[in-house]
Amino acid sequence: MPVNYQPISPVTHRDAGWKRPSRYFYAAHDVVVPVVMAELSHLLTSMPLAFVHQTEDAPFQLVAVQSLQPGLNVYVSPDGRWLGQYVPAFYRSYPFRMMPVEGTDRTALCADQTSDCFALEAGEDDQRLFADSGELSPALTNMRTFMEAWGKNRITTNARVAELNEHGVIVPWALHLSQGQKETLAESDAQPVRGLHRIDEAKLKSLSGEELTSLAQSGALSLAYAQLFSEQRMAHLSRRYQLHSEWHRHLANNDSLDVLFAEDNDDTLEFDFGE
């Protein structure tokens, strides 16, 4: 869905309001989502991790994999519910985001002004962006603090990922998408999926003791094994593909989606990923 992130100001948005989203349609087409190391303990229970980069020369980034099929996030139900035990922090700041200010090293607090969660005139149930004094409201101040903490942790995470790449242990991930929409590690008659990378455990184990100690001390080694352990969560993607396919059948029969998606209906949003 199209977005339009614009900087907010007490002049333009004096009377504007916002509310937390109750559904995740804004994430429904994302196949990956940026994540940070502070989230790993939550992510490992439900989502596979990988590394991606935009070009061969660009640095790798840590992401959670939400699908292998373009344009479909299988963690979002057809009616917008989140299908999982943990919602990545990147999504929990919506409709806000810290965006870079062109020509500077600063960021600005921006809002997606196309969002149903944002209104230039605050409604009765909306939270105000600004207090009468012109300062950020307490709720939005907390949100900005949350986003700034995530941004700082992303810098740390990117540094650890760069260390792993410098040691040559990040390699292309040989994944395939079968006709049944199920992810497999290798399948000769399936469509290959390109762009995702993983840790090569053999190369990791072949590093010298000094190199492994250095990676352990920085936290990069923990990240490497977290990615390896998360690979077993690929089975979660297959199950969710099946749920999305079954939805079409239930829709044709006018069945409720509540039973179909009940096992994964967890909309708990906690700002607890840490520093």
From TrEMBL:
Pfam families membership: SapC
InterPro entries per record: SapC
UniProt name for this protein: SapC
